Amino acid sequence: MPLTLPKTFAFSQASLQSYENCPRRFWLAYVERLSWPAMEAGPYDEQERLMRLGGQFHQLVERAEVGVPTDLLAVDLGYPLDGWFESYLRHRPADLPRESVEVERVLSAPLAAGSGRYRLAARYDLIAVGGQGEGRRAVIVDWKTNKRVTRRSSLQLRMQTRVYPYVLVEASAGMPWGPLAPEQVEMRYWFTAAPAEPVAFRYSSALHAENRARFEQILTEILSRERESDFAKVPDTEENRRRFCSYCIYRSRCNRGIEAGEFEEYDEEAFAEEDLESALEFTLEEVQELAF
What would the DSSP string read from start to end of the chain? Predict the structure, then answer.
């Protein structure tokens, strides 16, 4: 019998990236929802500390964007939060539209293939929209607290770079600013490691059609499979062990080693899907409230 996912399940950039990296990991994390007692990278204390600080930074920016006085937010932050927040205040992109600004907003769009119908959802750090008619602009900003800037070539291949503009265009008709054309949308990654040098990607109708086809292809592949063995492991090569397996919490289950990879080489965006506290992050109630 072909695979059926729970009605509460919404695809996200994390689950699609997990499938792209290793179909078996998608099965274990999103179908079986299997917890596994392994850490992604070592030393664990440093990984946990920086992930916690990243969450705190996002909360600071969210509060600043909704109008909380920044002098109140900047009190007793400590290192490195104080430096990150100062960089945000100094280097927040000055050209962002001002008419409509949404922070920590969840949007979704239908995702269909064959008899399966699901939703593709995205949780945005910031969406800024302004202008009228053909001059309307929408800029997506995603704040990154990585220890170093991710290469543009790597970001371009990320599911996040595909999913966020796609969902915004598809969901925009139900938003106060109205329908957006793909050419009116831009995706920017803003790094605390290089606050004056955001990495931007312009969207287009051609990319939108390409992304729709890719998402539907992935959904068709997933729903056509029935059991764990249908979801292949990433090929067992030295490069794949270094790039994927050593940072995967299921590595020992798959006989791909037991030692966690070095945190200095860890890319939290590529492996965040393995945090099962947030893996199935969109509940039925949330999905029902999303923009249709």
Answer: ------TT-EE-HHHHHHHHH-HHHHIIIIIS----S--SEESHHHHHHHHHHHHHHHHHHHHHHTT--HHHHTTT--TTHHHHHHHHHHHS-TT---SEEEEEEEEEEEEEETTEEEEEEEEEEEEEEE--GGG-EEEEEEEE--SSPPPHHHHHHSHHHHHHHHHHHHHGGGSTT----GGGEEEEEEETTSTT--EEEE--HHHHHHHHHHHHHHHHHHHT--SGGGSPPPP--HHHHHHTGGG-TTTTTTTS-SSPEEGGG--HHHHGGG-TTTTT---HHHHHHS--
The reply to whether 1 falls in a domain is no
Total tally of structural domains belonging to the chain:
1
CATH number of the domain at 65, please: 3.90.320.10
Report pLDDT for 260: 59
Q: Please indicate, yes or no, if residue 56 is contained in any of the structural domains.
A: yes
| pLDDT over threshold 60, residue 93 | yes
Nearest of 138, 133, 148, 122 to residue 187 by alpha carbon:
138
Q: Which domain holds residue 177?
A: 10-289
| DSSP-derived pairing of the beta strands 41-42 and 137-144 | unpaired
Model pTM score = 0.88
Q: What is the pLDDT of residue 259?
A: 66
Structure tokens at 231: 């979801």
pLDDT for the residue 280: 41
262, HSE (Cβ side, Cα atoms, 13 Å): 3
pLDDT-wise least confident of 95-109, 160-174, 248-262, 276-290: 276-290
Tokens 């998608």, residue? Answer: 26
- Kindly report, residue by residue over 11-22, the tens digit of the pLDDT: 999 999 999 999
